[in-house]
Design a protein that fits this description.
By secondary structure, this protein is α/β, with parallel strands linked by helices. The protein has 3 domains: 251 residues, 3-Layer(aba) Sandwich (Rossmann fold); 140 residues, Rossmann fold, CATH 3.40.50.980; 124 residues, ANL, C-terminal domain (GMP Synthetase, Chain A, domain 3, 2-Layer Sandwich), CATH 3.30.300. It is built from 21 helices and 33 strands. The strands form 10 sheets. A 7-stranded mixed β-sheet has the order 5-4-17-16-18-19-20, with helices on both faces. A 7-stranded mixed β-sheet has the order 12-11-8-6-7-14-15, sandwiched between helices. It has a 4-stranded antiparallel β-sheet with strand order 23-24-27-28, with no helix packed on it. The longest helix is centred in the N-terminal third of the chain and has 18 residues. Bound molecules: 5'-O-[(S)-ethoxy(hydroxy)phosphoryl]adenosine. 5'-O-[(S)-ethoxy(hydroxy)phosphoryl]adenosine binds next to α12, β20 and β28. The site of 5'-O-[(S)-ethoxy(hydroxy)phosphoryl]adenosine (WTA) has 21 residues, from α12, β20 and β28.
């Protein structure tokens, strides 16, 4: 396949194909202007995608500064919006298709998922879960994960999903911070054919948490689980409440739906709380307008639900719209490198949404894998999590999209809850490499160091200059977010901490983060958090963590470590890796641990991270005159593997 002969000049725009536009959920080229003219009432279009138990008074209430209220007066329940309201028309339609790692699978119709959620909600209520309680969910990609999220939502409880790959310490910390007294987990799961023990980690976390914790354990592997005091069996709980119908708890639009932790500059996990009304409306609206999801579609967002992408576009967006969502456990290359393509073929997937990291891995594995399968059901492709380079963009379109599917490159983050910058696939031309424009109703600029808009093509930083429905509670309330949310002379601003350029048509190209975070395989880690873990290893004097370009994962973690005098290096390398695995999880284990007698420092003693980044990426080092110890540069270069 060679594609459709689209113009491949860098930066050239590619119009959406007419077969796509004519059927797209949004195809009106005037939508941008309309939203602008009608802001904030334009957001009723998102609010009206939901069913409200009490209608909202207005889409938005607020002035130039917080508090900002989205859909004030409105009351709703998220599980009713994702389940109950679809029953009259599609109780026998599949809500969820699950593909297990060992090639087994299961699906749930809307009615079946409704029943599972109700039985679990009744069980959790019996354990004492009440409106406003925080329930931590520590499950891999199994159907019981979205069921547990929706069961919490039904009760008005706040879910706190912790990525299954995180360690016991990371879990305990997130439970403590969220003051969570309930945990839903499982015995273990398969990854690449190996059984991974999950309950052991949950047990250790429970011991580390101060308060009493009730634990519900799913026997996923089916080998029987030992349950001690305070533990409850998931299946017994469901069986005991089979057929139960739990009255849903109506929540105010601004009430929290869930908490999720992400990595920030401080090195500590940062809790982000999303609302029931604004978040759900924004997610449903972008699932419809950007991902073009319709009820009759099968939608596959290949992200793990442990991260925000899975919350928004595996669970809430697709289910709010009444579509079929695909959930897949395990990895893309097991048992074979054609696993995803086989599944797209098997389930006639219409929309496929994944990360550039994955696409670069597919490229490396070769086009022969997708070519063995019929991918003609695909109508739209999406990417998220990091910039996609033009080569990967074209490969994706040619080899997965049959040379003709539009691609939406969607920019957003845990804090934004839903997509803010992208193209509307039925309206806007695509520019490979650029994410797109701020969506209708979203206002953003690219600014220079003094906060002034900069010229097209110049490197600056993205700033969001108007509130959006999916904003987290802290931004809406005006809780202090340090320098990230400010009110300046020209009003309220939110800084996502992303470097970017903008062209003269308003298309934004993202260039990576401006804070101390590294994005590995689309997952965000804080360099500070990793450094403090590494420095805690006996024998380590100092450490600096930087991101190095990596062919498949986009960025790889390089740890530069200065050992204490006399420390045994071979042994230390293992201990550094183990410490990171214990504190954060195996996903954050450094690709390279480079020992150096000293770290590069400025005269004031600050570690010159920029220099380490350049060394890690084998780039020109630029100006090193600020270095106190220039003799170290040669050492660093000779020891860095590249
Ligand atoms: C980056 C994931 C370029 C960005 C949804 C952002 C992107 C961070 C894109 C958020 C994109 C996300 N192009 N960069 N399309 N999408 N990012 O919180 O740096 O895990 O701030 O949310 O990923 O990561 P998070």
């Amino acid at each position: 396949m060679t594609g459709d002969g689209a113009d491949r000049t860098p930066g050239a725009a590619i119009d959406p194909p007419s077969w796509f536009s004519s059927g797209a959920a949004v195809s009106d080229p005037g939508i941008d202007e309309q939203f602008e003219r009608e802001w904030p009432d334009c957001w009723e279009r998102a609010g009206d995608l939901l069913d409200w138990e009490r209608p909202y008074e207005t889409a938005f209430r607020g002035g130039d500064t917080p508090p900002f209220e989205w859909f004030p007066g409105g009351r709703l329940n998220a599980s009713v919006n994702c389940l109950d309201r679809h029953l009259p028309e599609r109780k026998n339609q599949r809500a969820l298709v699950w593909e297990g790692q060992l090639d087994g699978g299961r699906s749930y119709t809307y009615l079946e998922l409704y029943r599972e959620v109700n039985a679990l909600a009744a069980g959790l209520r019996d354990l004492g879960v009440e409106e406003g309680d925080v329930v931590t969910i520590y499950l891999p990609m199994v159907p019981e994960l979205p069921a547990a999220m929706l069961a919490c939502a039904r009760l008005g409880a706040v879910h706190n999903v912790v990525f299954a790959g995180f360690s016991a310490d990371a879990l305990a910390e997130r439970m403590e911070r969220a003051d969570s007294g309930f945990l839903v987990t499982c015995d273990g799961y398969y990854r690449r054919g190996d059984a991974i023990a999950q309950k052991n980690k949950a047990d250790n976390a429970r011991l580390a948490v101060d308060r009493d914790v009730d634990v519900v354990v799913l026997d996923h592997l089916g080998q029987g689980v030992h349950l001690g005091e305070g533990y409850h069996d998931y299946c017994e709980l469901i069986d005991a409440h089979e057929g139960a119908e739990v009255e849903s708890v109506a929540r105010d639009a601004a009430d929290p739906l869930f908490r999720i932790y992400t990595s920030g500059t401080t090195g500590e996990p940062r809790g982000v709380t999303h609302t029931t009304g604004g978040y759900l409306a924004h997610v449903a609206w972008t699932a419809q307008s950007v991902l073009d999801i319709r009820p009759e579609d099968t939608h596959w967002c290949a992200a793990d639900i442990g991260w925000i992408t899975g919350h928004s576009y595996v669970v809430y967006g697709p289910l709010a719209l009444g579509t079929t969502t695909v959930l897949s456990a395990g990895t893309a290359d097991h048992p074979e490198r054609d696993r995803l393509w086989k599944l797209i073929d098997r389930h006639a997937v219409d929309v496929f949404y994944t990360a550039p990291t994955a696409i670069r891995a597919f490229m490396k594995w070769g086009a022969e894998h997708p070519e063995r399968h019929d991918l003609s059901s695909l109508r739209l492709l999406g990417t998220v999590g990091e910039p996609i380079d033009e080569r990967a963009w074209h490969w994706y379109r040619d080899h997965i999209g049959g040379g003709e599917c539009p691609i939406v490159d969607t920019w957003w983050q845990t804090e934004t809850g839903a997509i803010l910058v992208s193209t509307l696939p039925g309206v806007d031309a695509m520019k490979p490499g650029a994410a797109g424009k701020p969506l209708p109703g979203i206002e953003a600029e690219v600014v220079g160091p003094t906060g002034e808009p900069i010229d097209p093509g110049e490197r600056g930083e993205l700033v969001i200059t108007r509130p959006w429905p999916g904003m987290p509670t802290a931004l809406a309330d005006g809780t202090d977010w340090g320098e990230r949310a400010t009110t300046e002379r020209d009003g309220w601003r939110y800084y996502p901490e992303d470097a970017a350029t903008i062209d003269d048509e308003g298309y934004v190209t993202f260039l990576g983060r401006t804070d101390e975070a590294v994005n590995v395989a689309g997952r965000r880690f804080s360099t500070m958090e990793l450094e403090s873990t590494i420095v805690g290893v006996p024998g380590v004097a100092e450490a600096a963590v930087v991101g190095a370009d990596h062919e498949t994962t986009g960025t790889a973690i390089y740890a530069y470590v200065a050992p204490e005098h006399g420390a045994e290096e071979a042994d230390l390398r293992e201990r550094v890796r183990d410490a990171v695995e214990d504190a954060v999880g195996s996903v954050a284990v450094p690709e390279a641990v480079v020992f150096t007698p000293d770290l590069p420092k400025t005269r004031s003693g600050k570690i010159m991270r920029r220099l380490l980044e350049d060394v890690a990426n084998d780039e020109d080092l630029g100006d090193t005159s600020a270095l106190r110890n220039p003799e170290i540069v040669g050492e660093l270069q000779s020891r860095t593997p590249n």
